[in-house]
Design goal:
160 residues, mainly alpha, 2 domains, 5 helices, 0% strand, flat
């Protein structure tokens, strides 16, 4: 079996477990007044698990396969691609997730965007830094002020 089908099979198992959790275990702990709501906290995970299962079945059945075109990824030649950049970006995502609480949203997100664009090859710091800062502050403002979800903006040791 090809590499993409093995990955789809593993993802199918993950989506089935995720779907089982969303359909059966998340709804049991709802408060009685929330059970009458049209949208529950488990609605998005349910939809996401269904789409994941459908996508996995499409890959497992080979419906997405066609002729291999120039530019398609050939799993037999993985060493020809930029694996170093991909691994560095994955490591940066893990470090970002670990730094959100101690450094705060503004610092960790700005550093993530700046370092991520640097890893991908951007070298125009006079453009990269202001864009990262503006995007970070805009997302923080929308989430904090418009949606009303608290995001710790400053580092933990500053008491914010």
């Amino acid at each position: 079996m090809a590499l993409d089908r093995w990955i789809a099979l593993i993802l199918l198992g993950i989506c089935l477990i995720y779907g089982y959790t969303a359909w059966f275990t998340m709804d049991e702990s709802l408060a009685p007044f929330m059970r009458r709501n049209p949208i529950w906290p488990s609605t998005f995970p349910k939809v996401l698990s269904i789409f994941g299962i459908i996508a996995c079945f499409v890959i497992l059945s080979g419906l997405e396969k066609g002729e291999q075109k120039i530019g398609d990824i050939d799993h037999r030649r993985l060493t020809d691609y930029f694996l170093g950049q991909a691994i560095l970006l994955l490591a940066l995502m893990v470090v970002y997730a670990l730094c959100l609480r101690p450094l705060g949203f503004l610092a960790s997100t700005s550093l993530f965007l700046i370092l991520g664009s640097f890893i991908l090859g951007e070298r125009k710091f006079h453009i990269m830094i202001p864009v990262a800062l503006i995007a970070t502050v805009a997302v923080w403002y929308l989430v904090q002020e418009v949606l009303g979800i608290f995001l710790r903006p400053l580092p933990y040791f500053l008491g914010a």
